[in-house]
Amino acid sequence: MDLQIALLLGQDGITNGAIYALLALALVLVFAVTRVIFIPQGEFVAFGALTLAGLQAGRLPGTIWLLLALGTAIALVEGSRALRDRNFRRLPMILLVNCGVPLLLAGTLFALSPASLPLPVQVLLALMLVVPLGPMIYRLAYQPIAEASVLALLIVSVAVHVTLIGLGLLFFGAEGSRTLSFTDISFELGDILVQGQTLLVVVASLMLIVALYFFFERTIYGKALRATAMNRTGARLMGISGSLAGMLSFTLAAAIGALSGILISPITTIYYDSGFLIGLKGFVGAIIGGLASYPVAAAGAILVGLLESFSSFWASAFKEVIVFTSIIPVLVWRSLKTRHVEEE
Amino acid sequence: MKIKNSIAGLLAILATGFAANVTADINVGVTLSATGPAASLGIPEKNTVALLPTTIAGQKINYIVLDDASDTTTAVKNTRKLIAEDKVDVIIGSTITPNSLAMIDVVAEAEVPMIAMAASSRIIAPMDAKRAWVYKTPQNDAQMAMAIVEHMAGNKVKTVAYIGFADAYGEGWWNEFSKAAEAQNIKIVGNERFNRSDTSVTGQVLKILSAKPDAVLVGGAGTPAALPQKALKEKGYKGVMYQTHGVANADFLRVCGKDCEGTFLPAGPVLVAVQLPDSNPVKKEALDYVNKYEAAQGKGSVSTFGAHAWDAGTLLANAIPQALKKAQPGTPEFRKALRDSLEDTKELTAAHGVFNMSPQDHLGFDQRSRVMVQIVDGNWLLVK
């Protein structure tokens, strides 16, 4: 192993680590605000990437049907509640947001031929198709049991994960896809070749992290989320709606997931079920941060990426074993260092 | 008196014949992996089962198709269900090796013949009392590995590196390939593993590159096998690339694109059916299958995996008339007769080769069951 190989491995590890870091941040965010361990986080990676790939191949992505179905289901739930409360003025708004907008999106997709659109528009369309799934899933699956124990929420997460995997196979088929790369530039840095696309992943991840920082520090919604994460009851007493905070955190998580998928799909082939493993590695990073600290989670995720890339060089057959075993010393260290607080 | 007897006899024959017609449809149970990780193999197989003959020798054939989701436990459960509830006379399946291996005990216990569509030779070897009930249609990995090594030797490849799946597929190929390469004095300078779901193989690829092999063999199946090849090309590898027959579908070409130009792989002749010389006995059968499949599923949709299901149907169409002479469907005697007549299959041409079964060999393929193929301009080209 010489310096050049070490540099290449490092570059590879940081690229993957950046994606894991984004997912780790999303996981920490969702857990802090809603206490949900969001196993389906990885599915948004796959859905984002494959929806974009579908648009580029000129197919109508199956995600539009899921969007329509979830929208209709929410409209039914909310509508029947509004009817029961005799609150008829809310009905048009409910229908417009949950059925009208997805229908408009579907109509746009039918009318345009997405394959011929410029890449940024395709990315935007893919995001518009995938990101609303996050808050919709929260509304249907988690909000009715928002006060349940962490274990019950975890079980729901597993159910949502399995459902989304099955739908993914139905929508996108068993074979994987790659999307067109954003840039073909590559340049020499010292004696290693740096691909523009990998640089883009790192830069975009960094920018997202900075944007998240400002969102939490500078905006009223970001502060509301932080308040909910610190003390749910206290935040509610201050007039912060728990379900709004939940919706917001799931929207962010879905957006981060879909963006990560779109960023890496030109570098690697994404399958309907690849998201789970990517999400799991983000989860290892989040665990290193104790599901509470954003910077430690991000650093942990970068560490996972580096560990993965170097262990694939030295002992490729045991790569996953090494990555996932690394969680054990972390857990031991954390349990020795922190005092265990009984939940609720 | 004589007339009366013969009339009674005639009536009796008619009655049994009638009864046979009512009850004696032949039930074929199929369990395959139409969902889960092996779905890209299982789906064409499922589509092919719909094309299999519905009557053989005047008997109606019922196909009962179940999905095992690439899961071993489900495959075993399906097998038990097919035997107990549907009273099947024969079972086709499953798509992948672990499932098929687990089904052997069940079919042997119930004495139902089984035709597997999975590749590993362990399904039918070593031959024992249980495996006596088990047949399979895909070529053994050993035959395919031999084809690669012979091609390497013919093209003056001296050193080779291997990168395969970190599972039974990659491990099985490593065993067969390393044995065959050693016999031909080809030096193996690298042995790496990667996972189907990996997003990066940079580490493995760098290690292979530092060993400077003349050729690299990727032991993977389906589109995941494109990842190491793309990574090697990206890092400037100039040597000869080999893939296994597990990649022989259109999706692989789509995902791998121009990085797979010039790659060699062994495959069943059905992959290049049109290009086979007319003298090849397999050409007619293979073309017949390709045309039927594409008529039903659209042009360019055919893959070699579906043809394994087709060959299972060909085996049955050949064996069932013999078995019907000995016993009625739905009886243990019929299943035994069917097992025996499958074993007697001789010079039967199918889409993937020519079957010559024996009590020791329940596959019966020879070198006519494989060809070397090169990827040229995004298409499969037969290597002459």
Which tags fit this structure?
heterodimer; A: 344 residues; ABC transporter involved in vitamin B12 uptake, BtuC; 2 domains; two-stranded antiparallel ribbon; 15 helices; 2 strands; globular; B: alpha/beta; Rossmann fold; six-stranded mixed beta sheet; four-stranded parallel beta sheet; 12 helices; 15 strands
Summarize the structure.
The complex is a heterodimer of chains A (344) and B (384). Chain A is mainly alpha-helical.
Architecture overview:
The complex is a heterodimer of chains A (344) and B (384). Chain A is mostly helical and 344 residues long. Chain A is globular. The N and C termini of chain A lie far apart (51 Å). The model of chain A has no long low-confidence stretch (mean pLDDT 88). Chain B folds into 2 domains: 212 residues, Response regulator (Rossmann fold, 3-Layer(aba) Sandwich), CATH 3.40.50.2300; 127 residues, Rossmann fold (3-Layer(aba) Sandwich), CATH 3.40.50. Chain B has 12 helices and 15 strands. In chain B, strands 2-3-1-4-5-6 form a 6-stranded mixed sheet, sandwiched between helices. A 4-stranded parallel sheet of chain B has the order 8-7-9-10, sandwiched between helices. In chain B, helix 2 crosses helix 11 and helix 5 crosses helix 6. Classes of the chains: A mainly alpha (344), B alpha/beta (384).
Q: Ranges of chain A with pLDDT <50 over ≥5 residues?
A: none
| Approximate strand percentage of chain B | 15-25%
The string of secondary-structure elements of chain A, in order, is HHHHHHHEEHHHHHHHH
Q: What's the helical proportion of residues of chain A? A: over 70%
Helix/strand/pairing category of chain A:
mainly alpha
Q: Indicate the mean pLDDT of chain B.
A: 88
Q: Count interface residues per chain for the largest interface.
A: A-B, 36 and 32 residues
The percentage of residues in β strands of chain A lies in under 5%
Q: How many β strands of chain B by DSSP?
A: 15
Give the terminus-to-terminus CA distance of chain A: 51 Å
Strand order of the largest sheet of chain B: 2-3-1-4-5-6
First-residue to last-residue Cα separation of chain B: 73 Å
Question: What is the helix content of chain B?
Answer: 40-55%
Unreliable stretches of chain B: 13-22
Reading side by side through the largest sheet of chain A, how are the strands ordered? 1-2
Oligomer: heterodimer
> What is the gyration radius of chain B calculated from CA atoms?
23 Å
CATH class of the largest domain in chain A: Mainly Alpha
**What is the radius of gyration of chain A?**
21 Å
- CATH topology name of the largest domain in chain A, in short, is ABC transporter involved in vitamin B12 uptake, BtuC
Structural class of chain B, by secondary structure, is: alpha/beta
